[in-house]
Design a protein that fits this description.
By secondary structure, the chain is of the alpha/beta class. It has one domain (about 5-265): NAD(P)-binding Rossmann-like Domain (Rossmann fold, 3-Layer(aba) Sandwich). The chain has eight helices and nine strands. It has a seven-stranded parallel sheet, sandwiched between helices. Strands 3-4 form a two-stranded antiparallel ribbon. Helix 1 (about 15-25) packs parallel to helix 2, helix 1 crosses helix 8 (about 230-240) and helix 4 (about 115-145) packs parallel to helix 5 (about 165-185). The longest helix has 28 residues, at about 115-145. The protein is globular. The structure holds beta-D-glucopyranose (BGC). Beta-D-glucopyranose binds near residues 162 and 199.
Length: about 270
């Protein structure tokens, strides 16, 4: 129970990696705010599992607090929504200690065919949303003199090129530098900022690839550990970074990719 007494907001937690993170943080004792945009049923499912993972209820002055989780609809691509999401989370639990910027999207298109709308959609959710969610969180942390933790779910593509996903790569490369910059700027307040960079994890973002046996086989050949990752392969690391065991870690990216990033082999 490393996160007892902490409150965490996990963006994009109605499915995939975000859902696993929400459940894992709850299992570690945190109260969790779940966020969804287009999948309220998924958010309900996360909420049910968060409550189940919450373990025994805590008794505060005779009041038994079973309210381990709470769910808010918000589009991370819209700054107004982003601010409302963070403010509502703080108001609901009276504090916010951990922000996991997980929500992310990608659009497949050759560079010369990508539209302005696609570019905006990807950059707005993956980078602008993270920027302003973190800003709202940091204002609260500084006001309350709380040394909080910010964890961004980036991607191996903050380093690795990904042809046909130029906007996605630009957003994740931007996220890498945002993390480094904020780690330095926020360190005087005791706030830490880190990136987790998953490789190929079996989630809805990958559904097309998972249904294409040829592409899937080619991808698996590139992964030294020989399998796709599962959301639970990522959530344990996030729980660690959110805990006091990670107090001296900031500005770093941690790859969770089965060895994919460094697997260049000359045949
Ligand atoms: C992308 C996936 C891709 C994986 C490995 C992730 O960031 O979202 O679509 O399969 O990287 O390339």
């Amino acid at each position: 129970m490393r996160l007892k007494g902490k409150v965490a907001l996990v963006t994009g937690s109605s499915q995939g990696i975000g859902q696993a993170i929400a459940i894992r943080l709850a299992a570690e004792g945190a109260k969790v705010v779940i966020n969804y945009r287009s999948n309220p049923a998924g958010a309900e499912e996360t909420l049910a599992q968060v409550r189940a993972a919450g373990g025994e209820c805590q008794s505060v002055e005779g009041y038994c607090d079973n309210d381990k989780g709470y769910s808010i609809g918000a589009d991370l691509g819209m700054v107004e929504d982003v601010r409302r999401l963070v403010d509502e989370s703080i108001n609901h639990y009276g504090q916010l200690d951990i922000l996991v910027n997980n929500a992310g999207i990608e659009k497949h298109a050759p560079f010369w065919e990508a539209t302005e709308a696609e570019f905006d959609a990807v950059l707005n959710v993956n980078l602008k949303g993270v920027f302003f969610a973190t800003q709202a969180m940091v204002k609260h942390l500084i006001e309350t003199q709380n040394p909080g933790k910010i964890i961004n779910i980036s991607s191996v593509h903050e380093e690795l090129p990904f042809p046909n996903f130029a906007a996605y790569c630009a957003s994740k490369g931007g996220l890498k530098m945002l993390t480094r910059n904020l780690a330095v700027e926020l360190a005087p307040y005791g706030i830490t900022v880190n990136n987790v960079a998953p490789g190929a994890i079996e989630t809805p973002i990958n559904s097309k690839l998972l249904n294409d046996p040829e592409k899937l086989a080619a991808l698996l050949k590139n992964i030294p550990l020989g399998r796709l990752g599962q959301p639970q392969d990522v959530s344990g690391l996030v729980a660690f970074l959110a805990s006091e065991d990670a107090n001296y870690i900031t500005g770093s990216t941690f790859f969770v990719d089965g060895g994919l990033t460094w697997n260049y082999q000359e045949q």
